[in-house]
Amino acid sequence: MSMFNLKEVSEEVKSNDLYITPGVKNRVVISKWVSGKSSNKGTPFIGVQLVTVDGKAANVEPRQFDFWIGEKVTPISLGKIKHIVTKVATQKEWESKEPADLEEMVDHLNDISRGKVLRMKFIAEEYLNKNNEVKTKAVIGMPGDNTEKNPGFAEAVEEGGEYAPISDENTRLVYDPSNKRDYIKLKEDPTPVSNPLETKSAVVEW
């Protein structure tokens, strides 16, 4: 009996969408929103936990992406958060509350977007691990104005958001590792980290 059944070999190789890696992920689930503070300086943040639809079905642990809250960074963080939320909720829903604090903001985000699905583009960022090896991790880039020229990093794939759903074939999100905006190279004199995929912070779930 032959070891290789050549008649059943396909040249098409399907991508593995179980994990969030650099690139465009067509079905990303907003698992939940959390809040917390960094372990070193106590800087507050709002975190979103994301997992692909395939990953969720396979019980893959969601990845957390943090948006820092502070005088200078809050406008940028809220812009990124809104760019995500308005793909699964309307502008009216986004503005339906005026959260008084971080806890109320996280509650509001979970109320209008938790469990919903969208398309997202994750860019790559190099880092140095504890063995002084250069690795890459997926991070969230900058939002756009939702136009064909500048779509940002998120698109609607289902009805119910501020923007009309866009099919996989017509997506405007493109990941280009040769573009320095999509692939952030390691800075000089980096400090090794034990595991950049873990959030080194105290997380509060609401």
Note the main attributes of this structure.
alpha+beta, 206 residues, 4 helices, 8-stranded mixed β-sheet
Structural features, described:
- The structure is a single chain.
- This protein is α+β, with helices and mostly antiparallel strands and 206 residues long.
- The protein has one domain (25-198).
- Helix content is 16%, strand content 29%.
- It has 4 helices and 8 strands.
- It has helices at residues 53-57, 74-85, 91-94, 102-113; strands spanning 23-38, 44-52, 63-68, 117-128, 134-140, 154-156, 183-184, 201-205.
- Strands 1, 2, 3, 4, 5, 6, 7 and 8 form an 8-stranded mixed sheet that branches.
- The chain is globular.
- The chain starts with 22 loop residues before the first strand and ends with a strand.
- Residues 194-206 have low confidence and may be disordered.
Instruction: Based on Cα principal axes, name the global outline.
Output: globular
Q: Which strand-content bin applies to the residues?
A: 25-35%
Q: What's the total count of β strands?
A: 8
Question: Which structural class is indicated by helix and strand composition?
Answer: alpha+beta
| Domains, number | 1
State the oligomer.
Answer: single chain
How helical, in percent, are the residues?
10-25%
User: How far apart, in Å, are the first and last alpha carbons?
Assistant: 58 Å
* Order of helical and strand elements: EEHEHHHEEEEE
Average pLDDT: 89
Number of helices: 4
The largest pleated sheet is described as: 8 strands, mixed
Describe what is shown at a glance.
The protein has four helices and eight strands, in the order E-E-H-E-H-H-H-E-E-E-E-E.
